[in-house]
What we know:
One of its GO terms (molecular function) is ATP hydrolysis activity. It comes from Flavobacterium nackdongense. This is AAA family ATPase. Pfam families: AAA. There is one protein chain. The protein has helices at about 5, 25-35, 50-60, 110-120, 160-165, 170-180, 200-205, 230-235, 245-250, 255, 260-270, 270-275, 310-320, 335-340; strands at about 40-45, 65-75, 80-90, 90-95, 100-105, 135-140, 145-150, 185-190, 215, 240-245, 280-285, 300-305, 325-330, 350-354. It is an alpha/beta fold. The chain folds into three domains: about 5-125, no CATH class; about 135-305, Rossmann fold, CATH 3.40.50; about 310-354, no CATH class. The strands form three sheets. A seven-stranded mixed beta sheet has the order 7-6-9-10-11-8-12. A five-stranded antiparallel beta sheet has the order 1-5-4-3-2, sandwiched between helices. The longest helix has 12 residues, at about 170-180.
Amino acid sequence: MNLTESISNRNTSNLFAFRSHNQYVNVFDLFLLHFNAIPNAVIEENIDCENANDYFLEKYRNEIKEHFYQKGVFENETKSKLKEDYCVLDNIIIVFSLEKRRLCFLFTEKQSDKIQTIIDELTRFKKRVKKQSQEISLLINTNQGIETTSLKVTKPKLNIEDNYNDDFQQIHQTIFKRLSKNNDKGLILLHGKPGSGKTFYIRYLISSVKKKVIFLPPNMANALTNPDLLPILIQNPNSIFVIEDAENIVIDREQNGSSPVSALLNISDGLLSDCLNIQIICSFNTDLSKVDSALMRKGRLIAKYEFKALEVPKAQQLSDKLGFQTKILAPTILTDIYNQNENDFQEKKSLIGF
């Protein structure tokens, strides 16, 4: 039975629904409709898909049962060219994503040996990635659902010892070591008052670790329970998932009755976690006592830390290094130390003397 016949009498409502991975068709639905089986999936990145595609079409031309494609204009280009090429074999679908330099292999278990041979052949076309400034994949809402857009991150000049209290040194080493480990999972909870250095530290962290970073902005907290998020996570295994201002996500389920906590648990330590190997960083201002206790169980939690005002001796030392001629009178948050010359429009007790 060919592809058209196998799907003609099936529910294809989701087949051409645009997904966050921007493929012409939902290839997972296509596989299920055509082969009546849930596929195994292997994703390979940084592939010269143009040459890999030419090689595959030539070598396997007698085994390809169906072949279709999508053409379009690449980002920052004007001419239309091949973007996606789909090849259907016996219990195998291979997608060549030329623009994203990505190969997607879907297959049944009985084709494991054959697909491994094909993967070995096509990964010879892997490109060496030039060292570039770190980027994050920002999750955004579009008319087609959840997608990602790349943003460059500039690594801040940050000395951990100067900018944070002494009790943070060991925590930082634990966090950095775990995030540098491949195929790892777990949860990092960073909390404290605004201006205490959480975002500053996260920016330093993600620009220092050689992993892909997915960033969930505060206005998209509901994306955690959106089915469109899963394909993005599947295509980005062994990555770091940053959730900033996560108060509404990590709060105890008994207090708000919502399900984002359950989604976090699945990603960090559930069935999904063994496949995705995604590490999660949550930052928030709320007190740790309000956080769902399930998030802090041993084996799930990599580290937790409360960012507090810098103690007086350290605050004074940092202020002096920054060139300010001031006397620190009380523990002071980082933003007040760095911005001593800025106008303060909030009435508060003076912590810095002149």
